[in-house]
Design a protein that fits this description.
The protein is α/β, with parallel strands linked by helices. It is built from twelve helices and 13 strands. InterPro entries: HTH-type_LysR_regulators (IPR050950), LysR_HTH_N (IPR000847), LysR_subst-bd (IPR005119), WH-like_DNA-bd_sf (IPR036388), WH_DNA-bd_sf (IPR036390).
Length: 345
């Protein structure tokens, strides 16, 4: 396959591309090629909306202007990028080859604008992140309160997320960073990881559950479980632990990746689950859920900040990361029913 030698942020890289992508890449690298901002926005909008009309509305162009932008981009690259049909508009294989890069370029251009604004003393711009519920419950309010004391005009986009769902957003630039449970031995080379804390896990059951006093994992073999089993989740960690220790895998009858739904099922059903021990610091949680006192030591998980290794963070992004780190380092025990604002002042 063809190889290309690139310098990315002054670091050399050798990139091997499939033959079908090489033609597109050569066109992009050609001095005669001039990718324009509105062309990339048009391509991304078509990919995400699947129709020219909806895409045109999104980028505030008329449909003829959007079509012209795509046609110019296709002529510049020498390959078809969009195919039109009765079902709408879809990217060709060539279009898909540059779609993710186009999103990343647009995100970096936006970050460049924000850097200039912040250097000029205008704290505008935006920061987007995904935060695991393990962190958002105890530290999110405190971190954001501290951040807004200094950068009140910066928009924050925070979504609940686990590492498996956040990686795509990190790769295409729609997420600046994620705070998640991470197996540090499996972090891909394109990412960097900053540990914030280590969480101890417990088997949890509603107060009054028939197995609430179980002394061993062996006593739980016939129980029904509710777990989030997505990669890098607490549930997946528990499943792997059971198998490594020679126990049968938990009998998961409900797979649940919604935090609010898992909370409701934890105290409103006879399903066993797994959660961080720190949740028991909350009176609200402790009144409804207990830690099953199994004698086997359960695993601990690393929680931290993961981001693209080659990303150039804005000042606002770096400051929000520092706010999370400070919140973790200084936060007192928490209660879901108590606001964190006063403590953060």
């Amino acid at each position: 396959m063809p190889e290309f030698f690139l310098a990315v942020y002054d670091r050399p890289h050798v990139v091997t591309l499939p033959a079908r992508c090489a033609r597109v890449f050569r066109s992009i690298l050609s001095p005669a090629t001039s990718l324009k901002h509105h062309q990339l926005r048009a391509l991304v909008a078509i990919a995400e909306h699947g129709s020219l009309r909806a895409a045109a509305r999104t980028v505030y162009l008329s449909q003829p202007a959007l079509t012209k932008a795509i046609r110019e981009l296709e002529q510049d690259l020498g390959v078809p990028l969009v195919v039109r049909s009765a079902r709408g508009a879809q990217l060709t294989s060539f279009g898909h080859a540059i779609y993710a890069r186009a999103k990343l370029i647009l995100a970096e251009m936006q970050h460049a604008r924000e850097d200039v604004l912040q250097l000029a003393g205008l704290d505008g711009g935006a920061v987007s992140c995904a935060v695991t519920p393990l962190v958002s419950l105890k530290y999110l309010a405190r971190a954001i309160h501290t951040f807004r004391l200094r950068m009140a005009n910066t928009r924050l986009a925070v979504q609940e997320g686990f590492l498996s769902s956040a990686l795509a957003g990190l790769r295409d630039g729609t997420l600046d960073f994620a705070i998640a449970i991470v197996d540090e031995t499996k972090v891909a080379g394109e990412f960097q990881f900053r540990r914030l804390l280590e969480a101890e896990l417990i088997v949890s059951a509603r107060r009054g559950h028939p197995l609430a006093d179980a002394q061993s994992i062996e006593d739980l073999q016939d129980a029904d479980w509710m777990l989030n089993t997505t990669p890098e989740s607490i549930g997946r960690v528990l499943q792997d632990y059971f198998l490594e220790r020679g126990f049968g895998a938990p009998r998961v009858v409900v797979e649940c990746s919604s935090f609010s739904a898992s909370f409701a099922l934890s105290y409103g059903s006879d399903l066993l689950s797994c959660c961080p021990k720190s949740f028991l610091e909350s009176d609200w949680f402790r009144e409804r859920v207990v830690a099953v006192p199994v004698r086997e030591p359960l695993p601990r998980v690393a929680v931290g900040i993961i981001s693209r290794r080659d990303a150039l963070n804005t000042a606002a992004c770096d400051y929000l990361i520092d706010c999370f780190a400070d919140a973790v380092a200084s936060a007192p025990p928490f209660d879901f029913t108590e606001p964190h604002v006063a403590a953060a002042r």
